[in-house]
Amino acid sequence: MNLNNKIGVIIDSFGLGVIEGLKKAKEIGADGVQIYAVSGEMDPAVLTGNKRKELRSYIEGLGLEISALCGDLAGHGFQDAEANPAKIEKSKRILDLAVELGTNIVTTHIGIVPEDTGSRIYESMQRACEELGVYAKSMNAYFAIETGPEPAVHLKSFLDTLSTNGVSVNFDPANMVMVTGDDPVQGVKTLRDYIVHTHVKDGKLLRLVDPKDVYGFLGYSAMDHQKIAEMAASGAAFEEVPLGEGQVDFPGYFAALQEIGYTGYLTIEREVGANPAEDIAKAVSFIQSYRG
């Protein structure tokens, strides 16, 4: 397999802060980085004016580029109509920041898309995504929904109701394997028209789990990244593992991405483990083994 996609890493996985994380990404051979831009030093309200130019210049000086920003606001995604105006506004500011830093992709979780397409929650998610999609499209950019909370077929049917592809997909094969038991290879083909960014992560489903217990749901519980990481580390229902040790069919996954003509980033995410830097370095080598 002649895989020639660029390799990215989520620098937050290193737990070193932005600058040291960027240096580490360069050191282990990544081409680009994905960075959380929700709070702290990367919050759009904090990273303003010349600080944006300085960061972009620093990243380019390392010979790296940004594959995407992560704008995941957690909680209930866009299920809560009352909370949505503030979340939509913050999401737009994260997209503005992304474009200034040289990427046109912001990845996010929107909450589990309900089965009932006539429900108030479905409608509030639809309205929010429509507004975000139109805004992104006006900038030739994308909000990319991360796969996992619902099967690919259902996510596609939701995206098909929107007027633009400004809301598209960040494809994470491990989330699908660990939570819904969906097939990532078929998922790539199902979502082929929407995939603009991908994650490379591996995992195992150990027993059936209600996606609401992982991703939350309005009126049930809120999504919490720390809680998800703890679940993935504990192995009670599912387990995130180093690449090649789980249930993701990587030869099939990479082949499917090639088949649909995907030319974007393969971005490594590692949310658990005692030595994430070592795991991520091995992951870079794992992907490189599929090149040429």
TrEMBL record:
Cross-referenced Gene3D superfamilies: Divalent-metal-dependent TIM barrel enzymes
Signal peptide: none
InterPro entries (alphabetical): IolE/XylAMocC-like, Xyl_isomerase-like_sf, Xyl_isomerase-like_TIM-brl
Family matches, as SUPFAM superfamilies: Xylose isomerase-like
GO MF annotations, alphabetized: isomerase activity
Annotated keywords: Isomerase
Entry annotated with the keyword Isomerase: yes
Domain Xylose isomerase-like TIM barrel: 22-289
Name of the protein described by the UniProt record: Sugar phosphate isomerase/epimerase
